[in-house]
Design goal:
By secondary structure, the chain is α/β, with parallel strands linked by helices. It contains 14 helices and 15 strands. It has a 5-stranded mixed sheet with strand order 6-5-4-7-10, sandwiched between helices. A 5-stranded mixed sheet has the order 13-12-11-14-15, with helices on both faces. Strand 2 and strand 3 form a beta hairpin.
Amino acid sequence: MIVRIGDESNNMRALPSLPIAGVSRQLSRRSAFEALLHHSPISRAHLAKVTGLSKQTMSEVIDDFERQGLVRRVGRTRGNVGRTAVLYELSPAGGHVLGIDLGAQQLTVALADIAGRVLAEVHEPTDSRGGTQVIEQIARLADHLAREHHTHLGVIRSIVLATPGVVNPRTGAIEMAPNITGLAHINVVGLLTEKLGSPVVCENDINLALLGEIWHGCAQNVGNVAFLALGTGIGLGLYINDRLVRGENGAAGEIGYLPIGGDPMQAEARAQGCLEYQVGASGVVRRHREAGGSGVESAREVFERAQAGDPLAASVVDETARLTALAAATVIATADPKLLVLGGSVGARPDFADKVARMLVQLSPRPVEIRTSTLGRRAGVVGALSVALRRLHDEFFGVAELTAPLPLPQAAARDTARQ
């Protein structure tokens, strides 16, 4: 059973070592698939030209793909001398993946095909009872999406769950996720695998939000990125030298536990993390009340009052920005990213991001480009789909002798349905 992934290139399922002829054939299949992924619709002749394979080899590969249901014919094109050529593209029925983003407030489940086209997406408030009720909720939404697209869970080949906290590799439990109850005491990975019928890979939600921004968001083509998310809690994703950083126990980026903003030995700070206790949504509301404010139930209301000119709310927001900037300066000094992305329901607010950026100028010895997330709440599920796709592609076309993963399709108008 798989409980968490390593880096994208080294920990995906790979085919057994093949003899030379087998490796050559698999490389041909891989090259053709990559060309179809990026150049569809495309003819056999054009595929041969793009890949450098012979026309005979390409015809054999396409015939094989057609038998497996991986490609479909989508029309014909007329050549220079009047001859026509059949055009091919990857078939939506060639394989499906499921991306799940489990947040403290919202649960998102998305279904995509082998080419990365999002077929459907559904959102619901996360079941406040937590634990097994959340597992049942995920299974229900996944089954709904599968049925809606005339398939069933058993044919979904790759499933990735974005979750707060860290997966315990021995128990399958999700630890260090205080905002969703009951996950630390059950085998989340095992139960979901049983319910969904395929192995489920769990990954930290901030890491996947970062991968989402790298694939389809504001961090495309950047090899050194830090993603700082602030909302219900605070978390960090690091992508350094084109690799996701996880650490020994998969807990790299749990910066909510940085001793910033208060007494790290205080009982509440130890349980939640000193920094998160101060700048997470509940901390923003608590500090507003401690400062004499009233009538506020959410961090969003504090920010709205600050924008409306309330001086007390403005001071709370300014302090939140200052503490966030201290954390960001620590990250910049340690990881040396080219780009810092601010995300989350609070972090991606333009007004808040501007405050953090202005303070960072005073704290950081060198300038770092700062952008706000362009995917917003979808960043986690998009990242989950990107990892699920890589795993599916590797299952079909991986070669044990190679380490480089297939590149994902570039951001484009690929989504055919959303809800």
